[in-house]
Amino acid sequence: MRVAIAGAGAVGRSIAAELIDGRHQVMLIEREADQFEPHAVEQADWVLGDACEVSILEESGIEQCDVVIAATGDDKANLVVSLLAKTEFAVRRVVARVNNPANEWLFNDAWGVDVAVSTPRMLAAMVEEAVSVGDLVRLMTFRQSNANLVELTLPAETPLAGKPVSELTLPRDAALVTILRGDRVIIPQPEDPLEPGDELLFVATADVEPEIRTALGY
């Protein structure tokens, strides 16, 4: 994929490096001259300019990108970049960084955001996951579809131990997408057995999350 990242600070550079390692084409757009350091991520294309300006986005060829990531430290800028990318340049996928959790409600499809990533929320979710085996933890919200990525770790005494995935009766708007078992990532098949300690990742709408707990015996 071709990915444009607005903001070449520590976060933007880290994302760029990861994507380049995954063999994606990356463009970094940075407005601050002191942050404009092409040698820091040499494999990326660098653009010096304000990603909140239509002219800069046009010159950078952002309409050719499959994904735009608004990764600046300013929520207002991230919203503007998201809106322009989606409405003016019809970018298929827009991901935005949420710096202040109080602003999270703004990061929705009305502002062109497909996926909002809130670092404070994700860190809190990781803490909850670490201390609350058996509880459903919301990791991420996909604004465009009104769905969430949620996780539940099966406790040692789970009644599902040894039972196949096919015996899970999940609600209509929920799907088990991955099982994390130790260092393994398992794409669940109907015959795969569940084990204590499995981390189950679901994509589901918020209103059916209680039904997922019920289906897992809670």
From TrEMBL:
Q: Per its UniProt entry, which superkingdom is the organism in? A: Bacteria
Q: What keywords are assigned to this protein? A: Ion transport, NAD, Potassium, Potassium transport, Transport
Signal peptide positions are none
**Is this entry keyworded Transport?**
yes
Q: Which residues form the RCK N-terminal domain?
A: 1-117
InterPro entries (alphabetical): K_uptake_TrkA, NAD(P)-bd_dom_sf, RCK_C, RCK_C_sf, RCK_N, Trk_Ktr_HKT_K-transport
Example GO CC term: the record gives: plasma membrane
Q: Locate the RCK C-terminal domain: which residues?
A: 137-218
What does the record give under GO molecular function? potassium ion transmembrane transporter activity
PANTHER family this protein is in?
A: POTASSIUM CHANNEL PROTEIN 2-RELATED-RELATED, TRK SYSTEM POTASSIUM UPTAKE PROTEIN TRKA
Q: What is this protein called?
A: Trk system potassium uptake protein TrkA
- The species is Amycolatopsis vastitatis
Phylogenetic classification of the source organism: Bacteria, Bacillati, Actinomycetota, Actinomycetes, Pseudonocardiales
